[in-house]
Amino acid sequence: MTSVPASPTARPGLSGFDLREQVARLGVWVALGVVLVVGIVAVPNFATAANADAILRQAAVLGIVALGQTFVVLTGGIDLSVGMLMGLVTVLANGIMGGDPALILPIVLLALGCGLVTGVANGLGVVAARVDPLIVTLAMLSVLQGVIFIYTDRTVGSAPAEFRDLAYGSIGPIPTPALLLGGLAVVCWVILARTPFGRYVHAVGSSAQDARKAGIPIDRIRLAAYVVCSVLAAIAGLVLAARLGSGFTGAGAGFELSSIVAVVVGGTALSGGRGGVAGTLAAVLLLTILATMLNLLGISPFAQRVVNGVVIVVAVAVYTAQRREA
Amino acid sequence: MDRRIPIVGTTLVALALAAGPVAAQDASGESGQPIVIPEQYVSPEALTADTVVDTSAFAKEGPWKLCVSSGYLVNSWVVFALQHIRYQASLEPRYESEIVVTDANFDPNKQIGDITDLINQGCDAIIYWPVDDTAIEPGLEQAVAAGIPTVNVGGGYADLPGIVSNAYIDQYELGAAGALRLAEALGGQGKIVSMLPIAGTTAAVDQDKALRDVLADYPGIELLDTQNGDWNRAKAKELTETWLQRYPQIDGVFTPAGQMSAGVAEAFDEAGRLGEVRFSPGDEYNGWLKWIAAHPESNGGVVTFPPSAGGVGVQQMTRILSGEEVTKGIHVPSLWYAPEDAAALADEAAPDDWWANDLPAEFLPAS
Amino acid sequence: MSTATVPEGAFAGLRQRVPVGSLGLWLGLLVLVVIAATLSPGFLNPVNLLNIVRQASVVGITAVGVTLVMVTGGVDLSVGAVIVFGSVLAATVMAGQDANIPLACGVVLLMGLVVGLLNGTIVARWRVPSFILTLGMATAISGITQMYTGGTAAGAVAPAFRALFNGRIGIVPVLALVFVAVVLLGLYVQTRTVVGRRIYLVGANPRAALLSGVPVTRTRLTVFAISGVCAALAGLALLARSGVSSTFAGQGFEFDALAAVVLGGTTFAGGRGGIGGTVAGVLILAVSFNLVNIIGLPFDMELLVKGAIILGVAALHVAAQRKEGLMT
Amino acid sequence: MGPATDREPHAPGPPGHLDEPPVIELRGVAKAFGIVRALDGVDLAVRPGSVHALVGENGAGKSTCIGIIAGVHRPDAGTVLVRGTPTRFAGPAAAEAAGISVVYQEQSLVPDLDVAQNIYLHREPRRGPFLDTRRLYRDCTAHLERLAIPVAARAPVRGLSVAERQLVEIAKALSRDASLIVMDEPTASLTSVEQEHLFRVIEDLRAAGRAVLYVSHRLDEILAITDTATVLKDGRLVRTMPTAATSHQELVTLMVGRELVADLYPPRPASIDRSGPPRLSVRDATIAAGGQSAIEDISLDVWPGEIVGLAGLIGSGRTTLLRTIVGVEPGATRGVQVDGVEVDPSPSAAIAAGIGFVTEDRKLEGLALDLTNLANLVSTTLPARRGVYQAAAGRAIAETAADRASLPRRVLGARSRTLSGGNQQRVVVGKWLAIGPRVLLCDEPTRGIDVGAKADIHALLRGLAESGMAIVMASSDLPEVLGVADRVLVLREGRLVAELPGGVTEATVMAAAAVGGDTLGDSGAAGAGGTAGNDGTMTAGDADEPPMGGR
Questions:
Q1: Residues B236 and B279 in one domain
Q2: Which residue, of A26, A96, A146, C171, has the greatest Cβ tally within 10 A?
Q3: What's the pLDDT tens digit per position in A81-101?
Q4: Which of C268, C306, C322 is opposite residue A142, by nearest beta carbon?
Q5: What is the pLDDT of residue B58?
Q6: Does D412 touch chain C (CB under 8 A)?
Q7: Is D390:C206 a contact under the CB 8 Å cutoff?
Q8: What is the predicted pLDDT for the residue at B363?
Q9: Which pLDDT score is estimated for C15?
Q10: Which has more confidence, A122 or C291?
């Protein structure tokens, strides 16, 4: 016999488990499963080791940057500068290394430094200047693109073979970039779900005012989220640099939006507070696998675009409906 | 080799040049013929194009599954190049009738992924145009390693291990031809502005270099400003409006792409300053051709940027798959049309966003 | 009893009657204009100023619709794709014939309406976050555009269409007039109609609005429809201006419009801001762009300055708002 | 229920604590926001082992006082002493570290976290650098059980009702090892049973040597549970005195600065004419799971001139019933008639039929805070001619509505956010008066507003009823329900279980609310209210489990 009278709203709490909330949370995984099954059953050349390898390698770059974007979106923010930051890292890394393996370590540090500086700048713009994050990071996008073109106006440099392993190597049967993505995803998940910082990220995104009342330094949390985002974008930039093997000035363009799409399709609310990296990871895989399937099926690129748009719309619509009922 | 004609021509002109730059009056060659430019302006890397490639590793029996990896498709030129690929492939029975096309939409990461997808679905040959030559090269290397030949069409020439052969249009040469033509039209004197494609692209980089190299030999010409019009007619027009406001006198405009030429010319026209300016040649973009037809007095003619490079790429691919010897590069020559001849290329019935072509009707882009 | 004797009430009343956005924003614009006029003597020439307004017209017309959407607490990122589709569609239907102009305009505006209604229906009925929905819609529409055209911008502009819309009446460009007309119409809707009232109620507190009998769903639908039609009209303006449709030309318009709206003081939270501020935002961006070109900065510096201007004006605006006590 | 001995004796409070320095002391504290002087030279000392009341009308400076004590605001002048040491709090965290814990009136729970995560927010149990989730839920469950709060530790806060959130809020403040607990209107949304329970908790805190600063508009509570009372008016200290030495009347006089009529509640009419057709009639309203809770087969009739009170515990369905009547609960089955005419289930139809709905939560559903009061007042009517808003007519409507709701006209142009709670509530009532309602539904119409404003609103409701309106008022403030309503309907678990005449004792109502419909049926002639009743499911097992009940 329970001691709670009446209120059905207390019901979810009784068991600490709400079925519909769980369905909403798992929706993207279900979609991923369905797409996988369809792929394996119906798409020629899909269920091969080579294809799995290709998908994982391609997903790694978007995956890593989307992990970072998840932090910012969870706090209720948005970061449009990640793509250009990845581009900058790609250009700087390959441009400076010029194929010299001795420079790998300095380059990694430089990339992380770029991420740190960008993240702090974005974060300060949002918390200190209190400008809308969309505007701050849109301006940062422009600034970073400017820096890229100050450094070079053309494709430069090359990656040493050791560095290329970051994108093309394997550890055991698993592609190195996939392992990196997996490792970072686990770290991010632990941070978000199992550390005070992660809890505060959710709290700030859910209600900054109330989080502040609880004594959480909301500005510092927001700032940290932008730093995490930019550092992860810088790491994604390193993987991209290894994958491209040269410094292409337009390398990162588009990742700002595709990472946001991945985060949202993965179930993180753009208003902040709800969601997490697990869904983001599933969404990245879902989107990458879908693109590969359409390629393997020989669907016209124009039609692929329509399919992509419809998938985003339907995914989000279905997801929203689930969450609303929950 | 196709390239020999310009090189021979170049040599002749180079001899004539001994007297000085002013002597290069015929630098662009005869109207309707491949452009000819002085040897000093031939891009050095293009010379490796004559390297012979061993294609025996790629030889296989038909039918061949031909695949196309496009770096981007939101551009009428590449759409026409694609239609040339389709047409040319239809002429060779050993190609399967179905051609697989992927689109990376300017994302090199995706283009590498697309190429991997093409490898995984058993393509026998990959024709591509890159988001960026070197940035997608690792993907191409995988294809070559898997025994799948790769042919680059439309972009510049690139000498990289992942590229078996290039059907290339020399952006530097094209830029140099345009710059020389403009310099001659100005009589070596005047103030010019330069409208380039998207910053950082091979086209923008090579054309800019060509212009500056040519201007080095024409000290009487002053380059006032350079802007990136992004192959975008509206943007070119907007930038030109600002130029018109900034500079009371503009004698010439260097803009070797027809979309931008049309936008620039319109802005001058609307400002009532069409009379003061000379244009560099544009390309055979139909909107520019129509402008030429309508304004015979003020245009710079045409140096073509032929989408038929796509068809040349297929021919090159056919040789590779047959095990025939090919060169690392096959030059798709840009043709020079003087203003009075260029008007004849215009297709008044076709849209502006269209390219002069010889494709059969069924291979024209669907609309 | 009159409100005129009480400063607070009087000021608020005044602000409602003159819906121009915040003073700081217009001061920012003034500063930019002064700088530009100092650097380039020809800047203040009426023809040049009108040209700037004309250049701003495509983004400006779009931004009017986006503003109304954002006041309700939504956002419309599909406008860029609608602009491109609109210009391509118009050129195709016109096929170079003057007789087809009315039909072409009608078809394009109808297309904008349909896209807007689709966006609005999904957002309002399914309560899908509009940012991501319209982003997806943009992708789908650009795919449809390419399928429709086969990749090239088919069709041709009728001569009279360009002559009319790209021409001038006296020294005033027709497109600038169209822009002004759309702004005035938008301001009228915003301040003088019931729909305008409802838009703010929905944006400020949708639940309270619903309980107050405001048709929340229909209001959301309406603003997205307006936004779609504005974007379609901007597509026609683009076509008139560039003379050719291109499947590529409109990329980025949605973010230009968004930046203008946000600069103008309309927040993502909804319920605040309005078309007056947006006009200032549009003009600030247009003058900045012009200014950067006047100075003749190289592309790299241009990007840096563009970023700095966006950030600087936005920060000033925020500071002014905070002083006003609107932000905590 | 919840005897004190069940509670963990987690208080270090040594004996003789009355001699200790005050836990917190304000000396000559002043604070201004812009040109508004919120506090001006206020002295306040809260001693360990005491319950200290802070009273005053809205705008008297209570919230600012709390803000300073909680480290949210910094005083412009004066000193804050913590246990005798002058201190400047850098922020809420510093105040918390000094042993100060606040139950905010404006609830401070983070909606996307669950109950346990909220209660221990920023004080999470850790294992190394990680959260100790198991201990979090274990501790939280134990804490909630100790306080007998019927909410699960893992329940997401987003799904909780206002009252449940209030309980969690209190649990959160009490989970800290605080030496001073500030409670800002803690009983605003609690029912009597829950209040009683809270008072016992407070008693235990006092016994354990803790200090409690108790802020409330309910003077009866203050007189019942506090030791000392400090009265503020217009940001200044009026008087601090032992509660035992004052009276209801004196407190009101000090707060208001004038004599109020002794009786807070307006006189009820001798009888209501129920011979004619009812103004509002509801038949068999049922909804499986509404926004707040389920209701089943509720029917009621309200006649012109009548005020019907809705009483019941948390989750009994009061709010859901009102929301169902105005048609915002999707999936509800109901028959609603106004003056015999069927009303479609939509808010606009309800408005057209003359039903107004003063919602429970001003900020959530009542007002668009960023808009002007004028905009809010006309939001229900929006006078228009062919889609064009008639500004002059709108202003006239707003002015009339403001006058009727005793809202000064000069604030019409100001944003609603800038008003005090009482005036905000006047705007909410005013926007419904603007429709010229025949039926007015009020959900907690006086929650969290001060004595003067409360009496105004009671008088207003009575006046409206006398003009022929039918009024349904749901409230957790039982004295209010009994004082204002002509008839009281008691809900329990989504069913109508009793119908009582106005003026019955609180005990009678509570018995019905907690036990069931034993008292139902005697007034069946008064309307269909009698159709719902004791269906035999209410067992003794349910009866001893009110929300704040213990084991």
A1: yes
A2: A146
A3: 999 999 999 999 999 999 999
A4: C306
A5: 94
A6: yes
A7: no
A8: 92
A9: 42
A10: A122
pTM of the shown model: 0.83
The token pair that represents C35 in the structure block: 């700088």
Chain A contact set for B366 (CB, 8 A):
none
Q: How far is CA D212 from the centre of its chain?
A: 20
- The residue extents of the domains of chain C are 18-323
Contact (CB, 8 A) for D513 and D311: yes
Chosen domain end from B269, B302, B335: B302
Q: Of B131, B136, B138, which has the smallest distance from its Cβ to A168's Cβ?
A: B138
DSSP D86-120: E---SSHHHHHHTTEEEE-SS----TTSBHHHHHT
Which chains are within 8 Å of B by 3+ CB pairs? A, C
D139–chain C nearest CA distance, Å: 35
d(CA B238, CA B133): 30
pLDDT of D548 higher than 60: no
Distance from CA of D338 to the nearest CA of A (A): 29
How confident is the model at residue C96, as a pLDDT? 85
Who wins on pLDDT, A184 or D9? A184
Q: Tell me the shortest Cα–Cα distance from A134 to chain C, in angstroms.
A: 8
Tally of structural domains, chain B: 2
Residue D253: both structure tokens together: 């006089």
ipTM of the complex: 0.80
DSSP string covering B271-324: TT-GGG-EE--B-SBHHHHHHHHH-TTS---EE---TTHHHHHHHHHHHHHTT-
Asked if A291 has any chain C CB less than 8 Å from its own CB, the reply is no
Residues of A in contact with D316 (CB under 8 A): 6
For chains B and D, tell me whether 3 or more CB atom pairs sit within 8 A of each other.
no
Residue D162 — very low, low, confident or very high, per pLDDT cuts 50/70/90? confident
In angstroms, the CA A112 to CA A68 distance is 13
User: Which candidate from C122, C255, C310 shows the least CB-CB separation from A317?
Assistant: C122
- State residue D173's pLDDT score: 87
Question: Does pLDDT of C10 surpass 80?
Answer: no
Query: Which CATH architecture fits D1-99+178-260?
Result: 3-Layer(aba) Sandwich (3.40)
Could you tell me whether strands D36-46 and D24-33 are parallel, antiparallel, or unpaired per DSSP bridges? antiparallel
The CATH number fitting domain D261-354+445-551, selected from 3.40.50.300, 3.40.1110.10, 3.40.50.20, 3.40.1620.10: 3.40.50.300
CATH second-level architecture of C18-323? Orthogonal Bundle (1.10)
Q: What is the DSSP letter of D353?
A: T
Using the Cβ of C144 and the Cβ atoms of chain A, whether some distance falls under 8 Å is answered with yes
In this prediction, residue A21 carries a pLDDT of 57
C297: which chain B residues are within 8 Å (Cβ-Cβ)?
A: none
pLDDT at residue C2 is higher than 50: no
**CB atoms C196 and D388 under 8 Å:** no
Contact C302 A146 (CB under 8 A): yes
Q: Which member of C12, C197, C209 has the closest CB to residue D414?
A: C12
pLDDT at residue D252, rounded to an integer? 79
Among B231, B240, B169, which Cα is nearest to B196's? B231
Residue B156's domain spans which residues? 52-169+306-327
Q: With an 8 Å Cβ cutoff, is C242 touching chain B?
A: yes
CB contact under 8 A, A217 and D133: no
pLDDT in tens, B182-217: 999 999 999 999 999 988 788 888 899 999 999 999
What percent of chain A lies above the pLDDT cut of 70? 90
Contacts of C40 in chain B (CB under 8 A): 245-246
Residue D536 confidence class, pLDDT cut points 50, 70, 90: very low
Closest CA to C213 of A325, D382, D23: D382
Counting as contact any 3 or more CB pairs under 8 A, the partners of C are A, B, D
User: What pLDDT, on a 0 to 100 scale, did the predictor assign at position A316?
Assistant: 80
- Give the start-to-end residue ranges of the domains of chain D: 1-99+178-260, 107-177, 261-354+445-551, 362-436
Q: Which residues of B181-200 are buried (b: 16+ CB within 10 A; e: fewer)?
A: bbbbbbeeebbbbbbbbebb
Q: Which residues of chain B have pLDDT under 70?
A: 1-29, 43-47, 367
